[in-house]
Design brief:
This protein is of the alpha+beta class and 324 residues long. Helices cover 35% and strands 22% of the residues. The protein has helices spanning 30-33, 35-38, 43-50, 55-76, 142-152, 154-160, 169-180, 191-215, 249-255, 295-299, 311-320, and strands at 2-5, 8-16, 86-87, 93-94, 104-111, 114-121, 130-137, 227-230, 256-257, 261-264, 267-268, 273-279, 283-290, 307-308. Strands 1, 2, 5, 6 and 14 form a five-stranded mixed beta sheet that branches. A hairpin with a 5-residue loop joins β3 (86-87) and β4. It is globular, with a radius of gyration of 20 Å. It starts with a strand and ends with a helix.
């Protein structure tokens, strides 16, 4: 959806690719089954989609490519074939208009069949807006995660990923988690405790990924150890596969988390607007935005729930706005 604040729109959409093109059992099948959608990509983008071995990954790649062009075309008023994307110094995809400016800043993420788009359009008051998003699924690797944890232990599971965590985060996950986090039933045992821990683990992964993507750098950024989310907590699982409109204590306190204690190189981070939300029982999304030139702008933007968009809606828009 698009949330408007003084002509600035914060745009958040999800595309569910899991049921798309059911007759495509192999990636090459998409050339026929998804021909309308593929025809809207550049030759380079089409090749990149069809390079994936697993068709599920190819579907997400296709939806991701379509979303980038769609958001530029729709919110910057650009004909589809003129939504030529380039990359900035950090290799992040961007769109520059004839004046060399970004009328729409965007970022995409995908996991387990869901593709997320976050964008900001119409920000003309400042020189720069940074946008990042991530979507995670706590159950996609559940069998594998449980098998490893049962055999090697929770501490080793955390250590296996510690290279991309901040200095205090791995220790928090290993030592303080159960005592500091609400939501674990008093009589929880075995797999229930492991699932609880994994939800906190993927929460940290989600918020870190969104923040790092907002900065424009990847998970190999040299300063990853200097970024810490302290005393983070997971939102409670949602009841349906949708994010409800804001309002009401239950939604605000249980399924949405807006307040985060972020430290970078020992100093408190105060310029990022970050919203973490549940999506059904297993998924979470995170949106991160900032305006470095005037931090209060992004901090004042309302980051609401994501809405779903279909590939048919994207394709219909594209075909109606192709241009020359």
């Amino acid at each position: 959806m698009g949330t408007s604040t003084n002509q600035v729109e914060v745009i958040q959409y999800l595309v569910d690719t899991r049921g798309l093109w059911p007759r495509a059992t192999k990636t090459k099948d998409l050339e026929n089954e998804a021909s309308r959608a593929l025809a809207l990509l550049t030759a380079e983008e089409k090749t990149a989609v069809l390079r994936y071995y697993f068709v599920a990954d190819a579907k997400m790649s296709l939806a991701s490519a379509l979303l980038k062009h769609w958001v530029v075309s729709k919110y910057a008023g650009v004909p589809w074939w003129e939504t030529k994307l380039t990359r900035d110094a950090n290799k992040k995809p961007i769109f520059l208009d004839a004046a060399g400016k970004q009328p729409v800043a965007f970022n995409v993420s995908h996991q387990a069949g869901i593709v997320a788009l976050v964008a900001v359009a119409g920000y003309v008051d400042g020189s720069q807006v940074d946008v990042g998003t991530d979507v995670v699924c706590t159950s996609e690797r559940r069998v594998r995660d449980h098998k490893f944890i049962d055999a090697e232990g929770w501490g080793k599971f955390v250590d296996m990923h510690s290279d991309v965590f901040g200095r205090s985060e791995a220790g928090y996950l290993k030592q303080d988690l159960l005592g500091a986090q609400p939501g674990l039933p008093p009589l929880a045992r075995g797999d229930e405790i492991t699932d609880f821990k994994l939800r906190q683990f993927y929460t940290l992964w989600c918020i870190r990924e969104a923040y790092v993507k907002m900065t424009g750098e990847a998970l190999l950024a040299p300063w990853l150890k200097d970024l810490e989310f302290r005393r983070f907590r997971a939102p409670e699982p949602g009841e349906g596969f949708a994010q409800r409109s804001d309002g009401g204590d239950m939604v605000e306190s249980r399924e949405v988390i807006r307040e985060h204690e972020i430290v970078f190189k020992g100093g408190k981070v105060t310029d990022a607007n970050i919203c973490l939300r549940s999506l059904g029982p297993d998924y979470m999304t995170c949106t991160a935005v900032r305006t470095p030139g005037r931090k209060e702008d992004a901090l004042g933007w309302d980051i609401g729930p994501f809405e779903f968009l279909t590939v048919d809606e994207i394709v219909d828009h594209a075909e109606a706005h192709l241009g020359n």
